Amino acid sequence: MSASNITAIHPAAFLLVGIPGLEHLHVWISIPFCFAYTLALLGNCTLLFIIRADAALHEPMYLFLAMLAAIDLVLSSTTLPKMLAIFWFRDCEINFYACLVQMFFLHSFSIMESAVLLAMAFDRYVAICKPLHYTTILTRPLIIKIGMVTVTRAVTLMTPLPFLLRRFHYCRGPVIAHCYCEHTAVVRLACGDTRFNNIYGIAVAMFIVVLDLLFVILSYIFILRAVLQLASQEARYKAFGTCVSHIGAILAFYTPVVISSVMHRVARRASPHVHILFANFYLLFPPTVNPLIYGVTTKQIRERVLGLFLRKDV
């Protein structure tokens, strides 16, 4: 038996369709995508610059925010440049290994974002429920360990996927009906038994979303209980006001996930472009709105941003 018969064969490259059925509108669709990506780059780079430059912001809350901004930069930059190349120049081809790398970064950094949002919920829990122990609990070494665990968990969970996909023969053609290399879309092209890939992908997604969201909800149950026990209404508003930006970031991340999941089950017969537009919305929405949420609702960030643009010559 020849080596070609016993070795899994993959194409040299895949072809990304973009948004199936809306190819004639790609140039117009690219306008809001490009605008949102530009906002994401400017907003998250500004957050990182402000937090890096101002020693007063080297506190746990802002260090976690810096992690979130860095993750959002990588997450959006993993897919948007190639997506815009498809829309503008019809550059649909992507190397097989580049596709696997894109998929790895996309899913890994989505998992990291979920973990950082959980860490930020823990930060708010300690700040409100155990304020006297805040500085002794959330020390710099602990924050570094949380960051390392965040990266390690994501990399460990996602590393098997590229190796699992390499072993398949892609007999259903090289055309991916999507804007980027998403795990499910790539698996659909593979021949052979793909049940393990499907089960593993679903299990990881459910594990991450359910576990992280459960602990976030538990944190806010304790926070709400602590806030309601405060003596004055002003103190309650002030305590819960520190959580507004984080709640906004949670809604920005998890709401598109829930909508996309519901769409896949309720509107299975909907046109493919509907599902792909929702997938793109899920990918681009958090990186775009997170800097706006924190810039508007967090006084310290807002003052630093205004200071950058309104600084007067002395």
From TrEMBL:
InterPro entries named in the record: GPCR_Rhodpsn, GPCR_Rhodpsn_7TM, Olfact_rcpt, OR51/52/56-like
Occurrences of domain G-protein coupled receptors family 1 profile (ranges): 43-294
PROSITE patterns: G_PROTEIN_RECEP_F1_1, G_PROTEIN_RECEP_F1_2
Membrane topology per record: Multi-pass membrane protein
Bilayer-spanning residue ranges: 25-50, 62-88, 94-122, 142-165, 199-223, 235-254, 274-294
Pfam family, one: 7tm_4
Primary location recorded for the protein, binned into one broad class: membrane
Location of this chain's protein in the cell: Cell membrane; Membrane
Keyword Membrane: yes
Keywords for this protein: Cell membrane, G-protein coupled receptor, Membrane, Olfaction, Receptor, Sensory transduction, Transducer, Transmembrane, Transmembrane helix
Family in the record: Belongs to the G-protein coupled receptor 1 family.
Function: Putative odorant or sperm cell receptor.
Protein name: Olfactory receptor
Gene: LOC139084306
